[in-house]
């Protein structure tokens, strides 16, 4: 039973980790290479990797999506650590509207204009920090969704993911608080009730033993 509980806890932690990695904002240092627009089919299960900012787009089987081609500095652990390596990265640029994740993004056209203004070449690079959520998966044609971009002085600028730090701090604090509340509730309500049940059961068991002894004595007298 302990093995089953441990396995379920591990699965839950993995699922929560994947959810956090997909949903929380990440910050990439990039150099914009190009932008383009392409019609995407949304008629299979991979639709979950695309935004659905309004009711109309939810019913469409395809739509035009804007993309941002970049060269980025590689990072890991939600952008907490940066590597020296570079790699090509393509982002999509879609409004999230009021849907999930709750980025409330309505400025796709503005963002695309800002991105176009930051285009550069290897000989004359312009570096920027692009904030995004989601995954890049070539097999499923999934692209992270860019939500913000800003110019920076160079590729070695330090980016502190304050939102992720506050989020995990709040999450740990909330878990510790709820754990303490549960322990208090258990000590004040559940444990005394279990003790009462145990005492009652012991009393019933003692009465049953007394009755059994009385019957045995009665049969022996007979």
From TrEMBL:
Entry's transmembrane regions: 159-178
Name used for this protein in its record: DUF1523 family protein
Keywords: Membrane, Transmembrane, Transmembrane helix
Organism: Aliiroseovarius salicola
Top-rank taxon: Bacteria
